[in-house]
């Protein structure tokens, strides 16, 4: 699977069904070249369009439960 394909999938928390956002980048291990985590841009709140800061959440690859056709299910953030 290509990274561009993964970027188009919605990231959803499996426990509560909350939409987290979309993958914007990946963290890669320098030694092995394996993906360690995905960086997910959280959806902007209503009044945050005036602010330029983007909230990014780091989702470890071990927290991914299922990669489906349109969504990726992840464990809830503790």
Helix content: under 10%
* Main pleated sheet: 6 strands, mixed
Percent of residues in β-strands: 35-45%
Number of strands: 6
User: What is the global morphology?
Assistant: globular
- Specify the number of helices: 1
Total of domains = 1
CATH architecture: Roll
What is the chain-wise order of helices and strands? HEEEEEE
CATH superfamily: PRC-barrel domain
How would you portray this structure in words?
A hairpin with a 5-residue loop joins β1 and β2. The mean pLDDT is 86. A six-stranded mixed β-sheet has the order 4-3-2-1-6-5, with no helix packed on it. The radius of gyration is 13 Å and the shape is globular. The chain is mainly beta. The chain has one helix and six strands, in the order αββββββ. The chain has one domain (3-74): PRC-barrel domain (SH3 type barrels), CATH 2.30.30.240.
